[in-house]
Amino acid sequence: DQWTRVLEIATRRMQDSASTTRRAAMQLVRTLIELHPFGPALQGSGDELTKADHLLREVATRLQKLQQEEAREAVRQAEEVLEKNGQDDETEENSLMSNATKRLKKKTVTEQTITKEVEMCLAEDDEQADAAEERKRQRKALKRMQDCYTQRLQFVELLDAAEARLRSLLTSKTVSDVTEAISVVVELRLRNVPAAARAFDQ
Q: What's this model's pTM, rounded to 2 decimal places?
């Protein structure tokens, strides 16, 4: 988030009354444009903004879906706890059965039943853990993408907003203003930002 914050400060300082400050601000803006971490495409208002808007809405939709899945999982687990408590009550009642009746069950069958039940329980736990871990991974990736594109959008909007300042600096009577403004416009032109196209035409 420091990229957009620094760019905002630098574009404001492009209007400073001191020429050395304006020059340093434009050099910083050019460096930020050159080294920004938001991917190769940086096309300003239009395609870039439309793409970012659609992507952010898609991310928000998927995050909402994950929340709904987690809510359903929480309800399911609560129902399992209630059901287990009911089964425990039944088990306590069944414990009143005579020992003679229990001994009628074959040992091998009992062992097989217990083993199978344990394996099924472990498999179910692994599946639930995998599903929870996958949701956690997806949430983390979606949050990272949301943050990246939100900052990318702010970065582009700040560049678009700086167009008027750049155009005024191109007509400045101070040589350093014109020289640095040209350097910024050329860098913007390389990135196909619409603001640069208008400044370049000027």
A: 0.61
